Amino acid sequence: MFFFFVGGLEQQARQVLKSGAGRCIACGSRADLVGYEKVLKLFFVPVWRWPGKEPVMYCNDCKLFFPQSLTPPPSSTAEVPDVLRCQFCRREVDGDFRFCPFCGNAL
């Protein structure tokens, strides 16, 4: 006699508590602070749901859930000056760039 189990346990974002609360630890894009729930699925049908213990960070781009304690602080445009100076070629670069357009190094 054979028995095949087709199912699994996954996490789903239930409610966004704070949008853009930090950055993703995997891809670096914006991550939201969310309340989540765990879902048991059998044959791809949700059977049982229960809430998570505490809020977690959720990245909409790579769909990663991770603890709030691991997130770097959110990047703000107020910290970036209008004109930067590349530390390698010493040329002035606009503050919107993340890489130097002259030498290609990260700013």
UniProtKB/TrEMBL annotation:
- Residues forming the Zinc-ribbon domain are 23-104
Q: Which residues form a coiled coil?
A: none
Q: Which InterPro entries match?
A: Double_zinc_ribbon, Zinc_ribbon_15
Which superkingdom heads the taxonomic lineage of this protein's source? Eukaryota
Q: Can you name this protein?
A: Zinc-ribbon 15 domain-containing protein
